[in-house]
Amino acid sequence: MGSKWRKAKLALGLNMCAYVPRTLEDSSPSVEPAGRFSDADLLSPAARSSDCLLEMPTTPTESSSGLRLSKHSIKSSKKTCPICLTTMKPGQGHAIFTAECSHSFHFHCITSSVKHGNQICPICRAKWKEIPFQSPASDLNHGRARINQVAWPHDDALMTVLRRLPPPRTDVNRHISSLFHAPEPGVFDDDELVDHQPEIIETSSFTKDVDDHSGAIEVKIYPEVSAVSKSVSHNNFTILIHLKAPPSSRGQNCRINQPNFPPISQNSRASVDLVTVLDVSGSMAGTKLALLKRAMGFVIQHLGPSDRLSVIAFSSTARRLFPLRRMTETGRQEALQAVNGLISNGGTNIAEGLKKGAKVMVDRKWKNPVSSIILLSDGQDTYTVSSPGGAHPRTGYQSLLPFSIHRNGGTGLHIPVHVFGFGADHDAAAMHSISETSGGTFSFIEAESVIQDAFAQCIGGLLSVVVQELQVRVECVHPRLQLGSIKAGSYKSNVMSDARIGFIDVGDLYAEEERDFLVTLDIPVDGSSNEMSLLKVKCVYRDPITKESANLEEEEANEVKIDRPEVTGQLPVSMEVNRQQNRLRAAEAIAEARAAAERDDLAAAVSVLECCRKVLSETVSAQAGDQLCVALGAELKEMQERMANRRVYEASGRAYVLSGLSSHSWQRATARGDSTDSTSLVQAYQTPSMVNMVTRSQTMFFGSSSPRPSLRPARSFPARPQPR
């Protein structure tokens, strides 16, 4: 049994004990059901297996979330503070508090936790009859900036007060944290001053070296075929425009805080303003909240001193835990304490959470070059969105997202909301709508243990932005040509009235991220020349670090031509063009199948996907064994299985399909399904920076200096297949 338990811990990436010992009020040695993790377990080195005393292996028990976990005891490390993860020894200048349950903490750490509403032990969840309380001035004596500055009376003495807790109330809201009732400023302009220097980041052997001279966007243009006979016209002639962002000439974005990692080098990147909007409703209790805290710990530890973070927690209402503040050593420590102090209660008010998150971004005095919001929820908004009932979809999703951060709201703000739907009960349609309206992505976290990997992939991209405000200009060269269509997915595109010029607004690109757009036009009969110039492409964008605009227009390199011979014969179709045509076919089929499924016609939905699979299998790229086509076929088959019946579709099919649509429409990686399953689908959109961050998430214990054993390849995070 011990061996099975160790394997289970490694597979979940936890390697820690899940046990809640009896409280002082309990006289029996009963054990809380194993799906409940303590609030601090997943942020504490004390939870590592080396510190756990297994009293008696027991039969693994199904948790409320479906994870199988064993029940056994946990022993807190006496050398490490479970909250801040630093050493805890007498005589080092920090007071140590030992609770009535025998667990010890840095005094300033546990008082911060209590300040955020926790009145139970973060390790064993024992209810304390007495809690530590720190005098207002003591924060200053420790040299630590308060999260919310208040004009307190000056007091030079460090007071340790044990405050007797009142008897528990009997009302249903007795667990609601005082955090949600403390006063907030009317305007969130209390953000910390940004560091105008580029973020200094650390790289290791996880990151390949890149040359500093490769700083321009790579543009390649592929015609459908290389020649069209002079005497023949060709309607809907397809041209592929392929863009690839430069590598980060200043290196990758992995922070190394552990001593056992390879040597590091200092490099710079664009700094980030990040707001995380986190669901802490009652349904997040136990394992979900613990894993969320661990994932947030990973995010906090990988943000740099120039990055700024603010955290919004929401349930029935919403609360800003702290303003945008730089993730210096002090900032990270206090952010960890604030997150670790979260407790779950109440309903799900997504709109209020997003309102607070948007307000942080809109009201801020200062701005970092890159801005984004991360939203995670496992439920459905029961306060804003109406539900007509029956099998009909809920309505009013637009009202969930404040207009100030709508992608096309005309406010000038570009704040994408990257949304994570957690588990089987979240409102996938609402989450997808929020991401689409804001210009972000929607990820479906089916397995709870994947949440950290999903967050890692997201921040791996956000911490590697190398191009901003990218606009692609397409212009016909030959005087007789006109643009037919521009297929750009969710990116805004338009064609001028004379059909000679078109534009695609791409926005931000991560390092080495790729975009593919298909343009069609009609090739007329033309015997005047042996060659015809079709299109030229111009890219205009801004460097996020220097703020300088770049205008990429190399006449020969960014112009596509075809031959016009008398006779052409049978010409091979461009493999690159065919691959992207297949990608668009698949995306269109997925959208059509989803529409049929929402009409309650699952048979038609499955038929659409099956027909698309058949068409793809007959294309030249599929027959050549192209990996993208293989992946698309596997993805379509997976969606067919998730549309087998209404129950399966409601539980996971809708979320899986919408996450796939989000990924294809933005050509950006999303998390889908259970990433611990090695029989995975191949995604084409993951960047090296995302791969590196996910690898770090999968191979490192949080708070440990030792890498954990390698896991199987992640389902949602495989390497990008290369063109043949």
From TrEMBL:
Residues in VWFA domain copies: 273-459
Protein's UniProt keywords contain Transmembrane: no
SUPFAM superfamilies: RING/U-box (SSF57850), vWA-like (SSF53300)
Biased composition (Low complexity): 704-724
A GO MF term: zinc ion binding
Pfam family, one: VWA
Region (Disordered): 702-724
Keywords, comma-separated and alphabetical: Metal-binding, Zinc, Zinc-finger
Domain RING-type intervals: 81-125
Domain of life: Eukaryota
Protein name: RING-type E3 ubiquitin transferase
